[in-house]
Amino acid sequence: MRLLLINPNTSASMTEKAAITARAVAASGTEIIAATSRTGPASIEGYYDGALAVPGLLSELKERQTTGYDAAIVACFDDTGLDAARTFSDVPVLGLCESAVATAGFLAQRFTVVTTLERSRVLIDNLIQRYGMGGRAKVRASDIAVLELEDAASGAIGKLRSEIERALEEDGAEAIVLGCAGMTDLARELQEIYGVPVIDGVAAAVKQAEALVSLGLSTSKRGSYASPLPKPFSGAMSDFTPMSASG
Amino acid sequence: MRLLLINPNTSASMTEKAAITARAVAASGTEIIAATSRTGPASIEGYYDGALAVPGLLSELKERQTTGYDAAIVACFDDTGLDAARTFSDVPVLGLCESAVATAGFLAQRFTVVTTLERSRVLIDNLIQRYGMGGRAKVRASDIAVLELEDAASGAIGKLRSEIERALEEDGAEAIVLGCAGMTDLARELQEIYGVPVIDGVAAAVKQAEALVSLGLSTSKRGSYASPLPKPFSGAMSDFTPMSASG
Amino acid sequence: MRLLLINPNTSASMTEKAAITARAVAASGTEIIAATSRTGPASIEGYYDGALAVPGLLSELKERQTTGYDAAIVACFDDTGLDAARTFSDVPVLGLCESAVATAGFLAQRFTVVTTLERSRVLIDNLIQRYGMGGRAKVRASDIAVLELEDAASGAIGKLRSEIERALEEDGAEAIVLGCAGMTDLARELQEIYGVPVIDGVAAAVKQAEALVSLGLSTSKRGSYASPLPKPFSGAMSDFTPMSASG
Amino acid sequence: MRLLLINPNTSASMTEKAAITARAVAASGTEIIAATSRTGPASIEGYYDGALAVPGLLSELKERQTTGYDAAIVACFDDTGLDAARTFSDVPVLGLCESAVATAGFLAQRFTVVTTLERSRVLIDNLIQRYGMGGRAKVRASDIAVLELEDAASGAIGKLRSEIERALEEDGAEAIVLGCAGMTDLARELQEIYGVPVIDGVAAAVKQAEALVSLGLSTSKRGSYASPLPKPFSGAMSDFTPMSASG
Amino acid sequence: MRLLLINPNTSASMTEKAAITARAVAASGTEIIAATSRTGPASIEGYYDGALAVPGLLSELKERQTTGYDAAIVACFDDTGLDAARTFSDVPVLGLCESAVATAGFLAQRFTVVTTLERSRVLIDNLIQRYGMGGRAKVRASDIAVLELEDAASGAIGKLRSEIERALEEDGAEAIVLGCAGMTDLARELQEIYGVPVIDGVAAAVKQAEALVSLGLSTSKRGSYASPLPKPFSGAMSDFTPMSASG
Amino acid sequence: MRLLLINPNTSASMTEKAAITARAVAASGTEIIAATSRTGPASIEGYYDGALAVPGLLSELKERQTTGYDAAIVACFDDTGLDAARTFSDVPVLGLCESAVATAGFLAQRFTVVTTLERSRVLIDNLIQRYGMGGRAKVRASDIAVLELEDAASGAIGKLRSEIERALEEDGAEAIVLGCAGMTDLARELQEIYGVPVIDGVAAAVKQAEALVSLGLSTSKRGSYASPLPKPFSGAMSDFTPMSASG
Q1: Which GO molecular function, any one, fits this protein according to its record (chains A, B, C, D, E, F) (predicted)?
Q2: Beta partners for E73?
Q3: Which of C201, C223, C238 is at the close of a domain?
Q4: Which of C154, C167, D230, E84 has the CB geometry, 3.0–4.6 Å to C112, for a possible disulfide?
Q5: E109 and E181 belong to one structural domain
């Protein structure tokens, strides 16, 4: 089984970190193909960054079709471009937020997502409401820039731990979800420290992707994720013209 | 007051139709600047088309800054790229769906949105839930392709009318919202035929844009719509590097 | 265009304050007809005051029909009698709360309404839930009596500012809605102080009324706002007998 | 124990019918004091009628204080003026809709309210959402005018039965709530015919009133139902000036 | 009228306390039959205890049928086994939580349930969401073990009072619901101290049971509470084989 | 990895069918230990059957601890006793409904669960609301008794197919979830026939169990699933006395 893990921002160091986690949790027969988007922002912090990361993400999905993959993972906790990727693709596509909160739901009745910046807090809260976890999960920002997570001297981990402690104390959180792909390497250690499940989206998405592939399930092509209709795409986006449109 | 009306798909005929409506309802001092995206799909039907329309939309928003505008309207009922546009922009940005359902809410307690294809139905239903109208509004698809609305011989209007009649009969709809920018020219006539308010998103958005500008209100830059942070953007997206990042 | 602005309480000083705001934001061709209810409570604080303000409000709506108006505004943030006014009237009727929260929704994803007394807090929260903003807006009381807002020496503005500051800090509010018609004169200054959108219901309602009139839209007469049925009204309410009933 | 049953419309025949039910279900020590409003509409069908019934209702509540009552019931399924009555009163006040749906909730997980006219359907649906039963109850209109229920030849009962049958078949209703005070005499017979619980609001409210009185519970005077504040009431409403205001 | 009050835990002292309350509030013609489960946990704290209390509860319901009862009350605030009891029984069955929150809903728009241990908080919050009060009620734990309520020296009452004070201050609670059957003796005194309605589930359930019986209403046997189907029950549960199955 | 698959009803043929599916989808290193409850109903149809199946389920969980398992699956679509099992257990416990709807959520935005009898429909709908999928999923009953699924001549499959067809046509379902463990063998074939994802709970739960075990995640022991407290258990339930209680 080949899983395509696409980092939709252009920071290769984040891709590498996510790939390490993915490979660590993957089943023995699973190959992780890690890809970094070649076009778009260096990190995804808010709606503008996210929207401009989608073409790069779709390019990777498309170009890697020639070498093949059985499922894809969008390695950003904002689930950037997930709906578009599912519409485009014939294989399952997983997002980190959706995978992580579904996983948390099997372990705890109430949990808290701890993310980076305030600007991402409401965005993730909206995702969680759409995924149906609005009554069970809170979202907290810990005032960390995404790329500070790459820098051990930034103090980011201290801020993250403070916010986890507030979640346990004030929210009655029964589990913690790490709300940024850049936190993926911290899950195990934080789980040991706090004694509650700490869920990382990269790891969760790998297991969900493996599950869907092994069950022979893929995105429904009936209704909202139906394949793109043939039609002209203009200008810089002409590469994305649906293949059936060229026939 | 100058309102920038951007059609995020690349079909100039749809832009023209929307501009006619916009100019017809605009206040005497309002100038409508109609722009057609130069990059992306010819029509927006589903998530894939929508995601690939956003860079073209943001390009128009950015390039037109030199000549200036007081508010912008994204002229697609899917509210394509609306969050990203609000994050980017310092002036108010309005979407058709959000404007239309807010307007309908002043006129009726229960209403139905009639859109084009089934693939757009759930997408719009999700928007309506996010905008808080989920308990008050239903969404129906009438099996019309967006560009069929440009073709009088397509039978599209008959299908639309059948679905409106079902909404009145089966949903107890007190008003109808037209769920596609391409239906903008039909609102007045349908309102006369059916004797209930028929709300068109283009017209609604123009009035909301005028309202915000005249009240001196603009998108909050605190929290989820805070301006993009400075950071590198790579490849085909490098033109979108936030200006403050270059300093 | 003639907009009837009815203050449903009997304090003419509040009417005057609302009329100043209304005229300041009205379009050049809009005439504001300000009316003070002649029967009912001096201010509206809670359900009892509100219910007893409705006949006076409906009287103004009815008596002013002879001179004519194109839309009406109920100038109390509790949206006192709004449903009854819409049922009675053939022209659009706007409430302050509904107009303000719809306007806030175009500017911010999360916002806080700051109102006067605790007894109005849940009442407004119920309105906001009904209008679909329950997941996006919080309501705070600032322990101010409505008529204290007419008295510069009351300390009311200090209390209001403290509560706004708590909303920004504790709620993560991205915008503020002023939850009482008596605060209408403070919006601009507070917006400058806090750097987030501050929305006043009087101003918002004027623009929504102008929008509906210019779009040729009025309250649906199908379903819940259908015109009153002919039937006898007894005693002190006999003046309200629906006109069609007398035929 | 003395229960004041106020019919907020001015049709004495409806009061009499409700009083018969109330006396039939009252406990041995309970006295039912039936009162008909002396001012307002002959029947309550929609928001306009409802709003204009409230002063008459509050007058009865106030004037009957001299002879005393332990709890009051507003005998209209729209729960007309219930919030105002609770704010005014020092004893418990019950509404028919709230009492009936709470009672239904002990008997069935899903149920349907069958009311009279379409114009009341959404009004009741909004009540049910506010009372928290929106996910469990549907509302159906059976195209009956309220006063037709007083007329055996009107065909009203046939229409009501048809709608109950649709509720059982199409909604999977496990119980039926009769959505108009004028249907109170039909509950027992319909329950026998259909073999599911049929709940009448008058009977339900009598038992809830008895329960609260015997438990020594009354409306909270903290927060939203706090007693009216002293202030002037003008014109035709001056009789409603809160007593503490005169001190 | 005979009401069977079953304590689903095996602590007879708690049964006695509940019976005292029940008899104090029962109508003159109501006989309270108090029963203590003979199999299961000594107290119910969390899901495991609750699940293992259900067979004992159903045994009491079944064995007491020979001597007869008109309604049953499950005397635990977790509404332990309530759905199963309603499915089994031909008479009304009431739970403490459901009865108490319905009663609170007639008295206050916002209220707080104060329960014992943190492990019961989310369980009760889930009940309250299912009963439709999620938007109106909060749940607080006061760190008291259930059986500490039997011990005057445990400090339990002090902890309970502290949590009530926090509910009034921080939640804006308009009423308090006592979230454990073991608190039943404290309601009157706490109501006097705090001046807001304090609702006890035992008392509330007795009155609801009396109401349903006197109205001739019982659990719907259509749909989700339909009587058990005949089928074999094995092993230790064979005594529970539905009677119709043996025919 | 050893997964304990417990059929909480006592029909060994159903256990066998579930075990076949489980083994077919399990990863190469996963051993499926299939267990049939030895006490309780032959099938689970409604709340009474479900409650009386829980002690047998917990017995299996407990007795099998000596031989060891890494996660457990409750093989009934009603998620019978799932909360109690999670409270009891130190390893992850999965239910079929929760696993299936989470899986469906990755594949489709709107889907329908097709179950057996009407009496299970609302029960499952309540589960789905609690799991947060209430806005995305409908539940339909197909009038099949659970054990008819064991009998090829019962016509059960025809009824099931009719209901799936109605779901696709009337609900706009994008995927189908099979709402009974006894349908597990039909998923693949139905998926081929209808061309939409068809999700079976047994298969879904196996993959979720594998995922949690391989990620080192288990049920949170903080809050609602905290381990049972030591206390006496009486009578037939004394075997369930928490082990720590005996210390």
Answers
A1: amino-acid racemase activity
A2: E5, E94
A3: C201
A4: C167
A5: yes
Asked if B13 reaches chain F (Cβ–Cβ under 8 Å), the answer is no
CB contact under 8 A, D234 and C121: no
| Residue with more model confidence, F131 or E247 | F131
Q: What is the span of the domain harbouring residue E148?
A: 98-201
Q: In one letter, which amino acid is A227?
A: S
Cβ contacts of F135 on chain B, cutoff 8 Å: 129, 134
As a whole-number percent, the residues of chain F with pLDDT over 90 amount to: 96
Say whether E217 sits in a helix, a strand or coil: coil
Residue for token pair 């209703």: D173
On whether residue E90 sits in a domain, the answer given is yes
Query: Could you tell me the two tokens for C193?
Result: 């102080």
Residue range A88-113: average pLDDT? Answer: 98
Q: Are residues D116 and D149 in the same domain?
A: yes
**Are the Cβ atoms of C129 and E135 closer than 8 angstroms?**
yes
- Give me the residue from F40, F225, F242 closest to E237, CB to CB: F40
Rounded to whole angstroms, the Cα distance separating C228 from B98 reads 31
**The token pair that represents E31 in the structure block:** 């006989």
Residues B173 and B221 grouped into a single domain: no
On whether the CB atoms of residues F206 and F22 are closer than 8 A, the answer is yes
Together in a domain, F44 and F26: yes
Query: Between B and C, how many CB-CB pairs are < 8 A?
Result: 154
ipTM, 2 decimals? 0.96
Is E38 in contact with E56 (CB distance < 8 Å)? yes
Of all helices (H) and strands (E), which one includes residue F12?
A: helix F12-25
pLDDT of residue F243: 74
Q: For all residues of chain F together, what is the average pLDDT?
A: 96
- List, in sequence order, every residue forming a beta bridge with D79; answer none if it has no partner: none
Q: How many domains does chain D have?
A: 2
Chain D nearest CA to B173, separation (Å): 11
- Do A36 and A24 lie in one domain? The reply is yes
Q: In this structure, are E125 and E175 located in the same domain?
A: yes
Nearest to C197 among B99, B199, B220 (CB): B220
What CATH number is associated with residue A133?
3.40.50.12500
Residue F111 one-letter amino acid: F
D233 CA to chain B: closest CA distance, Å?
30
CA separation for the pair B173, B163 (Å, rounded):
12
Residues D216 and D174 in one domain: no
- Write a three-state SS string for chain D: CEEEEEECCCCHHHHHHHHHHHHHHCCCCCEEEEEECCCEECCCCCHHHHHHHHHHHHHHHHHCCCCCCCEEEECCCCCCCHHHHHHHCCCCEEEHHHHHHHHHHCCCCCEEEEECCHHHHHHHHHHHHHCCCCCCEEEEECCCCHHHHHCHHHCHHHHHHHHHHHHHHHCCCCCEEECCHHHHHHHHHHHHHHCCCEEEHHHHHHHHHHHHHHCCCCCCCCCCCCCCCCCCEEHHHHHHCCHHHHC
Shared-domain flag, residues B158 and B109: yes
Subunit contact B122:F110, Cβ cutoff 8 A: yes
Q: Is residue E226 part of a domain?
A: yes
* Closest chain E residue to the Cα of F50, Cα to Cα: E84
Cβ contacts below 8 Å, chain C against chain E, sum to 9
CB distance from D170 to chain F under 8 Å?
no
Residue A166 CA to residue E122 CA, distance in Å, equals 18
Residue C135 is nearest to which of A118, A121, A129, comparing CB atoms?
A129
For residue range F172-216, list pLDDT tens digits in order.
999 999 999 999 999 999 999 999 999 999 999 999 999 999 999
The reply to whether B135 touches chain C by the CB within 8 Å rule is yes
Which one of A56, A223, A225 has the shortest CB-CB distance to B237? A56
Distances (CA, A) of D174 to B1, D102, D130: 58, 14, 21
Among B184, B222, B199, which residue's Cα sits nearest to residue C196? B222
C-alpha torsion E212→E217→E218→E221, nearest 10: -150
Residue E138, pLDDT above cutoff 80: yes
